[in-house]
Each structure stands twice: as C-alpha cells, then as structure tokens.
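Researcher: I need the complex structure. Ligand is zinc ion. Inputs:
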Amino acid sequence: MLKPLAALTSFCLFCLVSTAQPANNAAILARKQVPVLCYHQIRNWRASDKQVDKDYIIPPATFKAHIKMLADSGYHPILPDELYNYLTTGAPLPAKPIMLTFDDTDGDQFEVARPELMKYGFKGVYFITTTDIGKNRHYMDKNNIKQLADEGNIIGCHTQDHTNFKKYKGNDWYTQIEKPTKKLETITGKQIKYFAFPFGEWNAAGLPELHKRGFKAAFQLTSPRDPNDPIMTIRRLLGCGYWSAQTLDYNIKHDFGRVASKKVVLARAK
Ligand SMILES: [Zn+2]
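Model: Output:
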C-alpha cells in the first residue's frame, strides 16, 4: 500500500520542483518563436527620407492596414509577461500569438498607433529612450507614457540616450540601464521588467548585467539568439514602411525566426 503512495508523492514532488525551476535554455530554444513586430516612426514619407530609413518609417495608412490585417486574420497580440511565461514554463498562448512593440519614444506612436490598437482591443509594448521624453513635439511626454501604462500597455527600457549596448563599461550600466529604468518606474508607478537593445545590437558579455538588474527578458532584432541566454535575446521583425499588409503577413509566416532567404529578400523588395 505504501509503495504506490510513495511513488505518487515523489512524482508530485517532481512536478512541483520541475515547475518551480527556471526553464533551461534548450527548452526555450525548442519552443516555436512568437513573432514580435517592431515599429518606429509612423508618418508619411518626406522627400529627404532615404530607402533605408523606410525600414523605420511607416506611413499611417500602411500602419493601419497592417493592424487591420492582424485583426482580420485572427492574430492575438500578447504582452511580455505572457511571452516570458510561455518561453520559460510552456504556459499556453492564444491562437496566432503576436507581439507589437514600438521603439524610440516617437509621439506618433501615441497619436496614431495607440488609437489604432485600441480600435481592435490590442495592447502594445513601448520601449522608451528617456532622454527623448518630452524633448520636442515629435516625442511622447511623461503624461503620454503614464497614460499608455495606465491603459494596460507595457513600458520597457530602451536606455537613456540610445548608446550602443556593446560599448557599455563602468558607469554606463548605471547611466544607460539603471537610471532610465528608475525614471520610467517613477513615471508609470510600475516595475519595468523588459529591455530593448538600441539598434538591436548586443554582446553576450553584457547580458548578465541585465539579469543582475532584474530584467526578465530583452528584445533585439534579427541576429540569431544567444544559445546560452535566449530569453535576453528575443528576436523581432521590423514592420517595414514599404511592406503591404500581405507582405507583412507573408513575412510573419515565413520569415520570422529564420535567417533571411532569397525569397524573403524578394518579398521585401515589393
Ligand atoms: Zn531604438
């Protein structure tokens, strides 16, 4: 009688222990990646905008078409805590999960993206460069950021002044990571748990500094993830300004998480 009970007890203990432990990197890497879109400026192109800039500048009409396509196609935007729980514990996600992120504190993210997302009940993640807060009329101010947080969006740290993460040494960890994070926590009244690398650039040597400062996860662009720290090198896809909604849909399905192929490069040229 005792033997099966003991076996059951140890099985349950095993369950408890295995759910309590952080997931290992191999388990995280084995899970299907959730597409994370990354937007910057949302405005009409100017004659002075170069082709390369159009990766980062999306006309409002195109942006609206992207969001409408996501809604019409049944994508479900999730937030970083859900992604973190999925990656580290295998917690379930809604069908067709996706994440919408916005970098660099641009005011048009508040003016254009926020109402567009609200139209569909979507929420997003806004990575803020603190030196740009309220800098001029092109940037969000403190009230905008507080309002986004109050409305259930997530505010993340994108450094103080967008200095490349690979160059940090000495006091930079305080200036570029700790100080702006504290500032965002003061503005929002919430803990800041997520980080995005300026230019998507990172080095493995710097990643422990993010863990030390309590970040749960960090977002880059399209480099392969660090096999030793995939949670701090989550990939994102630029929502390019010259992509139609159909091209975005194609790239979400076929490009995300892969090294760019010839086919995708052709699709991008559309
Ligand atoms: Zn940036």
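Model: Summary of the prediction. The first strand starts at residue 36 and ends at 39.
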